[in-house]
């Protein structure tokens, strides 16, 4: 796979992920009649099911990161050349914003709109740290022991994490930035994104270090 | 597999798909007490679960298209002989109407009844375009990289797309036509079907072209 | 596997299936606060998830029929010796009643109690005929093309069929008889069981004949 | 795998399991607006999905028991050396309490708080006995016939057992002890834990004996 094709896959996959997350959030909030549990059930199921499809279809192309925290962790483990980190992250962020605009178009909203949803404080940051720690742990553990099952493990983990973290588990810096551009169910106030992203990177670093020991991942370069 | 057997599989599979979509829609609306989110949750889960079973059982016989947009895309990629396109589409449409009648029979409704459910406008068309683009993308990507997992990828995608598109993701011209013949939860006004079908074909064509490049699908004839 | 072990597996598996169906029905009705859609969602998910586990664990022992309609269809196809049909059905029915008693014990109900839930009429019978036709079709199709995936195909099908049939898809004579012995969510009036069972056998016979042609199943004896 | 690494996996996996169970219980109760069925649906889906990820990622390291009843059953079957039983159970219990604290931190609760949720009486004990019997049966049956599918079988079973048992299926002594330390949705009064644990061990012993006969598990030592 050439780098151009892999970047196209990362951009397109992240865009579709955001379309799923934001679009299903809008639909869920509109239909749920005020019951947030029902809305979050729909949002979590749509996201998990969407991830199954997206990782199965793009995994063999680009690795299906769709997530700067995953890209950084993979590079740290020597599974991605360092020079590809920046392009990966760039297209993930661009794709994420495109996905938000695509979702807004489907529901008749303006292309972008700043969120006013407050998500801050120690509980939220601890939630994002745990959520991203777990995500990296799932990817490292499953891709080592049962690589063919990784799409299902990741999708199941995120479905679960929507419910067991107080922040509903963003666990992804690109997703976090793009969700600041939607004033709907999935939104986050732009001012709150740095706290989320720092917590995510801390969790990702802790998992990469700990599971590097637990699984004794050999360091290698390239793919 | 002879063509007769494959056409029987396409007809029967599309009929069962419509029985699932329309039947579960009726049941969901009757039981949900006016909460549309709960009804759509049930409808989405029933459709996704039904697709797992249908694609697993018919995939090895006919390819389990159940969908003219998929048949056209496969033919364009050279995976289906051109002379089989028309018979495939014909039995899909006939099967779809038979499935609606089967569902109506189970719930004590008249065999057919024209829907009055308005589904039109740019947001709906964009939704159908995105939905079908994604469906073809999932099929092309997964059948290339992880063919044994395609039934799960497609079912998961449709479950998700019921929620992340404003149109609840018909993504299938045969399904669209047949759902015009049910004045229940899943219905669409007959006058609105051309817009849906055009949007679906546009999305399917875009995905076939783009992923043909991304995956560099070799062109071949026959199966 | 000796016949004794296979019969033990059929008895135990059918008992666990009924414990799942009846137990989750009681729990769902008690908690759902009168919203039948939510109760049926829980009942359908519990049944589908339970079937995944039960078929995975017992499939290699006895075939995991848990269902006289399946046993008769397998025997007709030459996959089960004729002399084993009666013992299979006998332990399935006995196990089914034991499972109802086990569920009642968990929820503090009398061991058995006759249901007063009316389930009769042409729509219900047509529903059971379609439901069992589909179940046999899924088993025959999937076990031929993708045998390792049969547990998931059957479980997904039943989850879907709870919603797309007006009868919530009993699709199993042993289950039907035992559910007459519970005056809870899952019950059926004893007088209504013959109609259900006849419809189920008709659907099973139609599927066995049709898919025997479609898949050209070779006739053989033994397993 | 050294014992230290396996114990780390058991501790971390059990901690993450409790974070999922307790965290999703808190979130579900807060959002469900008093409808316990919706809360339990979310709690069951989060737990089942979480188990898929946790068993896939840790299964190849430590066996992914996360449960003293499983560890004892494995040792009885000769699949785990007797000298490793105590360390396994110790880290499972310690991990379980750490997981409760992690969940409480995410939701702004005190690290630990004694539950006042009464769960006692014959129906509850019979429920736990059945639940654990079934869990051990699923593990023994599936790991013998379809080992690669065990993560899915166990997760599906627990999702189902949340609904078909009156106790919502703790089925795990370490989980039971740690859930006494949370005064939230998932809690159990400390005084009620011995009854649960005795019932769980009885069910596990019965399953190990019965399925040892059914599957004629050969006795061996070590792994």
TrEMBL record, chains A, B, C, D:
Keywords noted in UniProt: Membrane, Transmembrane, Transmembrane helix, Transport
InterPro entries to which the protein is assigned, alphabetical: Aquaporin-like, Aquaporin_transptr, MIP, MIP_CS
Molecular functions per Gene Ontology: channel activity
GO cellular component: membrane
Localisation per UniProt entry: Membrane
Membrane topology qualifier: Multi-pass membrane protein
Transmembrane regions listed in the UniProt entry: 38-64, 85-105, 125-142, 154-175, 195-215
Gene3D superfamilies: Glycerol uptake facilitator protein (1.20.1080.10)
Family assignment from sequence similarity: Belongs to the MIP/aquaporin (TC 1.A.8) family.
UniProt-recorded name of the protein: Aquaporin family protein
